[in-house]
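hey can u check if this looks right to u? its 236 residues, i copy pasted from the old doc so theres a chance i mangled smth
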Amino acid sequence: MRGLPLSKIVLLFFAVATAVTLWSDGALAHAIAQGDKGYIQQISGTNIGPFMYLGAKHMVTGYDHILFLFGVIFFLFGFKQIATYVTLFAVGHSITMLTGVYFNFGINLHIIDAIIGFSVVYKALDNLGAFRLWFGIQPNTKIMTFIFGLLHGFGLASKILDYEMSSDGLVPNLLAFNIGVELGQLLALGLILLFMRHWRATASFMRQAYAANFLLLTAGFFLIGMQCVAFLADYS
């Protein structure tokens, strides 16, 4: 793409990323690979390394989590700000993931993925200033990030329960999985920030921000729609 302006490269990137989200096989966010599921069902005891790997893989390939995280940091510039919001999100999803699995409490995968899709819609609307424009209010962004972190954690817990992990070594394996999730999140965050740093340095960033968040909004609505259709198909 020699000679192509950075502004067009940015919009092309978002268009491709949105298309991938919209046409992902089965529209199931970070669905459990059958190979991974079979491996987990066959092992027992403490397996720190494999579960850390699976946790990192789960987060890095979990485009719904990444889309929300991207929306959260979109207009955050300072390290302290970014660290605060990412920590709130991480604490939230860690709480519900760990307690959900330990107490064997999950939510229907289609329902929780639709809720997670809604979190992407919420963040895109927030970035577009829709709440203040439409309702004259601005939700507390820190509280909402923590709340949606809790909901994302239920999504993680529900998918981990689908692994049918052995009770032998459950706690250390679950903690290892959570550490892997956080490492995967840091990796994804690092790549996002690297991209954002270069993009924000361009004069066209604020103009392109509207289009980017509109694409984010579109992806979130599509995730909701696909999960609702899949849920109705399962019970029809």
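The radius of gyration is 18 Å.
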